[in-house]
Design brief:
This protein is 82% helix and 1% strand. With 274 residues, it is mainly alpha-helical.
């Protein structure tokens, strides 16, 4: 009984003599919870229920208060007001990290990034932690598949998501068996993808016609040969690029010649008329 009394007394002392900033911080978080619950229940009741309701809001704001104090709580509230309940879901994995990442985006891109991050908040936080804030914008460019490709292929997947169209990224998302490859073969494929994402997706399309493809060591070696050649001979992609360069150059020369001919014809006609 005495031990219980001492424990209660200790708790009361902590509460009474706690720094004003600590008590204020807790008060702000509680006030923010009430404010957002009121807003969400009126504006987006269905979405509010889907993210986990009052419990989810309280957990995110309490975590924000612990990680970043009043300033972070205010930033979370602003994101919630501007982007709805999904913003709280998007921050769930790591409120401090994800708030910073979202606030680094241009205003017009935040909503799309919030939607994408809210699909798998823990995974998104992990990827942002590993590869930086660019993950958010790159994932949002390819809803539903951008995050998957970055998770599967790391930095090379991020580069592909930033440079390629969604149809091209979809070819990478359809790849099967990458994780089952030996580490050396995985590293080779990552190196090829990082070096030229578009060349890799073009060859994947040629090999499988846009359907899912199962990677093997043999296929990755052939991919390398097609891209960069073998035994001193240029690969198919190199030959194709050279061919296109010649065709492009020929078209340009022909166009310039035609333009010059037209101009000369005009000059000759004017001279003749005179």
């Amino acid at each position: 009984m005495r031990r219980v009394s001492k424990l209660i007394a200790a708790v009361l002392i902590v509460i009474v003599f706690a720094p004003d900033s600590v008590r204020a911080q807790g008060g702000l978080a509680r006030k923010a919870v009430t404010e957002l619950i009121d807003i969400f229940s009126k504006r987006s009741a269905k979405e509010f229920a889907e993210i986990g309701g009052e419990k989810a809001v309280r957990e995110v704001l309490e975590k924000a208060a612990t990680e970043g104090g009043d300033d972070l709580v205010r930033q979370v509230v602003t994101l919630g007001k501007n982007n709805g309940p999904r913003a709280l879901k998007a921050l769930e994995g790591d409120p401090s990290l994800m708030t910073k990442a979202l606030r680094s985006l241009p205003e017009e891109k935040i909503t799309d990034a919030v939607i994408e991050a809210s699909r798998q908040p823990s995974l998104m936080a992990k990827l942002v932690r590993a590869h930086g804030d660019d993950v958010l914008a790159a994932s949002a460019r390819h809803p539903g598949i951008g995050t998957q490709v970055i998770d599967e292929f790391g930095g090379a997947g991020l580069k592909a998501a930033k440079e390629l169209s969604t149809n091209e990224v979809l070819l990478l998302a359809k790849i099967k068996g990458f994780q089952e490859l030996p580490q050396a073969v995985q590293g080779k494929f990552i190196s090829l993808l990082d070096r030229d994402p578009r060349a890799v997706t073009n060859l994947l399309r040629l090999a499988a016609g846009g359907t899912a493809i199962v990677l093997s060591a043999d296929f990755v070696n052939k991919l390398e040969d097609e891209m960069f050649g073998k035994d001193g001979k240029p690969g198919r992609m190199t030959q194709t690029m050279v061919t296109y360069s010649w065709i492009g150059g020929g078209v340009l020369v022909a166009a310039l010649a035609a333009y010059a001919s037209i101009k000369l014809w005009g000059v000759w006609r004017k001279t003749k008329n005179r």
